[in-house]
Amino acid sequence: MKFTASQIAGILEGELEGNPDITVNKLAKIEEGEQGSLTFLANPKYTQHIYTTKSSITIVNRDFVAEHDLTTTLIKVDDAYESFSKLLEYYNQVKNNKTGIESPSFIAASTTYGKDCYVGAFAYIGENVILGDNVKIYPNVYVGDNVHLGDNVIVFAGAKIYSESIIGNNCVIHSGVIVGSDGFGFAPNADGEYKKVPQTGNVIIEDNVDIGAGTTIDRATLGSTIIRKGVKLDNQIQIAHNVEIGEHTVIAAQTGVAGSTKIGKHCLIGGQVGIVGHITIGDNVRIQAQSGIGKNIKTGEIIQGSPALNYGDFYKSYVHFKNLPKIINRINEIEKKIGREQ
After folding, report:
1. Which CATH number fits the domain 3-95, given the four candidates 3.40.1390.10, 2.40.100.10, 3.30.360.10, 3.30.1030.10?
2. What topology is assigned to 100-314 in CATH?
3. What is the pLDDT of residue 136?
4. Confidence (pLDDT) at 87
5. How many other C-beta atoms can be found within 10 angstroms of the C-beta atom of residue 87?
6. Can you quote a single GO CC term (predicted)?
7. For the CA atoms of the chain, what is the radius of gyration?
8. Alpha carbon 89 to chain centroid distance?
9. pTM score, whole prediction
10. Catalytic positions
């Protein structure tokens, strides 16, 4: 897929300096650019590289003034970083603009779908599924019965969406994601055996949610597991049954959230965090990586440690922990001295 400098300048509403007909078909870092690549300069500490880059086109801020000769064509914009991000988004839209039904695939007769949908080869779409406009279902995806996908949803290859799940508009489900598998519900009987508790609820994912590769979201025992609008989940996260995650919360990889826990809005949760079940985490909470959360957390707190402590308390305690051998030696010396004096 090739773009000319004039096409890119038009997309970004930028000012072009150089060859308007030069083409690019790939992206590169400014220091690693080569012919046919597009790059950008936003951070002044990389300015030196613009004079040696082999990239065909470079996006720069409007106030950039070259101090030496350039071999790259410039596109000047108000904000180079923002414009480059905009271009990446546009590129993805073009790249993912697939339509039509590939064969072999299975689509139940009761399925309804909107305009400009795409269903890849070996995909399975069950009974009474509703697909909105511009939905993209990549190869080897499973969509169970009674699932509803909103407009502009992308489900990448190999994802599994179990029955009754509801996914809103503009969501991205990456490869290997499983939405709606059974919650971990077992009850011991009189003989000490564990019997399965039927998981009869579903998963609801609201608008503008991104779910990273390999993440699993369990269906509720009763009711719904709910991922609110704007949530961003990294790869390999476990969300258990009846969990609710508030709007625009971001969770990093390998975090696990146990059943029936409620997480508030605009939280930032680091990687490898473990959160027990049946607790409430307030809004705007920040949890540092590898923390263990075993109790309710109030709105606005910053938490670290396992078991987790207030962020400030943790670091004050850690200073003493590092010095613990020295402190013990001093205590021993004091005890010896007191013993001699007695």
Report:
1. 3.40.1390.10
2. UDP N-Acetylglucosamine Acyltransferase; domain 1 (2.160.10)
3. 97
4. 87
5. 20
6. membrane
7. 27
8. 16
9. 0.82
10. 241
